[in-house]
């Protein structure tokens, strides 16, 4: 028996969205039956873990909570605590943490830095120019032609990228960021990138030293509307695996992207440990990296973790302690599809307080992960954010998983609920 099984472990998951609920749920099913805390959590997570309020952007507050509950390890869910240095603060306190240092989190926190690393490591990505003034930016737009991607360097809650189809649109996006500062300081530096086309793939891997354990490939669906139209959201659904991307190809992508990036970071004295998520576009000329995230994806995690065959507590706990097997994460063959249910008004200002019904029936068989939910004064479950729930289901094929996930999602309703109807369609 492994030594961890002898003492009940305490785990702290930081964050309060669907991704964190999926992590909490996976841990709750682990053999070691851990004590699970989530901060700040949400109304659904509160049914599976002890929730605590915390300012996730304050590394000292996160560390103080981890100490108070005597956490054996911590999982940092969202990007903000990683970029503000909660990973470093926890390590200094001697608490194992799944998540990179602040310096390594720049792979997500600065698109210009990510580009620099990719170029140095020879990782395929679109041509780009990093600019801080409009004239240089316009010259880059004219050099690349359209479509062209205008990207705010820093974190902008997923809204910092405009893929412009016309020169005017590109110049407007550039001046919005550099001069009107619509993204604040995050847009003081802009990456102008050549436009590409092709299907997108999210490839997540847990890294420590030279060891890399990849998850199966996944895909998220970012725009609000069916057929990928309308404004971008945090993600309206996800699927894993991608049937036309074989395991051998996923392994090759790890060799092409993750290994050289991890090696380049180590060479610079910024070792990366934690989840490295590569957002890839499969272009006619081959795969190209669109972006890196340094954490689990949301909503990819809601389709990946229901497939986990490794024990979540052992696997994630070991990873937090820097022990990662150099092999893919063990998963069930069954595909999984996750459908996101969003509030009226999203991705603009979401309407809050709408009473949610149908959950109990939907939960028979499906995984229901909460994101923006809370309880009103009468104790009813109501909408409390943009993305409210994710409904995930496995099946023997993607089509079956999809049909089951939708059958469950359709049992849930509230005033103005939005859901895409084409998640995982045609895969
Ligand atoms: P990012 O945050 O960099 O992943 O960009 C958000 C989304 O914008 C991506 O998922 C793509 O759909 C799109 N995108 C980003 N860069 C490009 C590009 N160079 N060409 C075309 N689309 C892009
Ligand atoms: N699914 C996109 C993200 O997690 O950033």
Structural descriptors:
427 residues, Rossmann fold, D-amino Acid Aminotransferase, Chain A, domain 1, 4 domains, 5-stranded parallel beta sheet, 5-stranded antiparallel beta sheet, 29% helix, binds adenosine monophosphate, binds glycine
For the biggest sheet, the summary is: 5 strands, parallel
What portion of residues is helical? 25-40%
Low-confidence stretches are none
**Number of distinct helices:** 13
Detailed description of the structure:
The protein has helices at 18-28, 59-68, 79-84, 86-92, 106-109, 111-121, 134-144, 167-178, 247-267, 300-304, 312-320, 359-362, 398-409, and strands spanning 10-15, 35-40, 50-51, 73-76, 97-98, 128-131, 148-152, 161-164, 190-194, 200-208, 211-214, 219-220, 223-225, 229-232, 237-240, 274-283, 286-293, 336-342, 367-370, 373-375, 381-383, 387-394. With 427 residues, the chain is of the alpha+beta class. The protein has four domains: 9-101, 3-Layer(aba) Sandwich (Rossmann fold), CATH 3.40.50.20; 127-194, ATP-grasp fold, A domain (Dna Ligase, domain 1, 2-Layer Sandwich), CATH 3.30.1490; 197-320, D-amino Acid Aminotransferase, Chain A, domain 1 (2-Layer Sandwich); 336-409, Glycinamide Ribonucleotide Synthetase, Chain A, domain 4 (Alpha-Beta Complex), CATH 3.90.600.10. The strands form six sheets. The protein has a five-stranded parallel beta sheet, sandwiched between helices. Strand 20 and strand 21 form a beta hairpin. It is globular, with a radius of gyration of 21 Å.
């Amino acid at each position: 028996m492994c030594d961890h099984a002898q003492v009940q472990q305490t785990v702290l998951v930081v964050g309060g969205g669907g991704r964190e609920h999926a992590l909490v749920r996976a841990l709750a099913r682990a053999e070691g039956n851990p004590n699970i805390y989530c901060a700040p959590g949400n109304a659904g997570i509160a049914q599976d873990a002890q929730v605590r309020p915390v300012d996730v952007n304050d590394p000292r507050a996160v560390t103080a909570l981890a100490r108070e509950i005597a956490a054996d390890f911590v999982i940092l869910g969202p990007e903000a605590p990683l970029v503000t240095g909660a990973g470093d603060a926890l390590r200094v306190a001697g608490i194992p943490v799944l998540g990179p240092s602040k310096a390594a989190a720049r792979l997500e926190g600065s698109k210009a830095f990510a580009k620099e690393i990719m170029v140095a490591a020879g990782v395929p990505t679109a041509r780009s120019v990093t600019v801080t003034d409009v004239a240089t930016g316009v010259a880059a737009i004219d050099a690349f032609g359209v479509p062209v991607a205008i990207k705010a360097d820093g974190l902008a809650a997923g809204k910092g990228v405009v893929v412009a189809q016309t020169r005017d649109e590109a110049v407007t996006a550039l001046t919005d960021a550099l001069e009107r500062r619509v993204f604040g300081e995050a847009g003081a530096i802009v990456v102008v990138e050549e436009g590409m086309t092709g299907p997108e793939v999210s490839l997540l891997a847990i890294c420590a030293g030279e060891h890399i354990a990849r998850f199966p490939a996944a895909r998220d669906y970012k725009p609000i509307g069916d057929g990928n139209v309308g404004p971008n959201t945090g993600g309206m659904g996800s699927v894993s695996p991608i049937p036309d991307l074989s395991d051998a190809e996923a392994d090759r992508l790890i060799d092409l992207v993750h290994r050289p990036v991890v090696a380049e970071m180590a060479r610079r004295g910024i070792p990366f440990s934690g989840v490295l998520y590569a957002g890839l576009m499969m272009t006619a000329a081959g795969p190209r990296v669109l972006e890196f995230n340094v954490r689990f994806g949301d909503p990819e995690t809601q389709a990946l973790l229901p497939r986990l065959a490794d024990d979540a507590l052992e696997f994630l706990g070991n990873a937090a302690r820097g022990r990662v097997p150099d092999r893919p994460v063990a998963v069930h063959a069954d595909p999984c599809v996750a459908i996101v249910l969003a509030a009226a008004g999203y991705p603009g200002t979401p309407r809050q307080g709408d009473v949610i019904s149908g959950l109990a029936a939907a939960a028979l068989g499906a995984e229901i992960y909460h994101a923006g939910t809370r309880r009103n004064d009468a104790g009813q479950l109501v909408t409390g954010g943009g993305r409210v729930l994710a409904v995930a289901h496995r099946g023997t094929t993607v089509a079956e998983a999809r049909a089951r996930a939708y059958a469950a999602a359709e049992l849930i309703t509230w005033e103005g609920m939005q859901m895409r109807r084409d998640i995982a369609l045609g895969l």
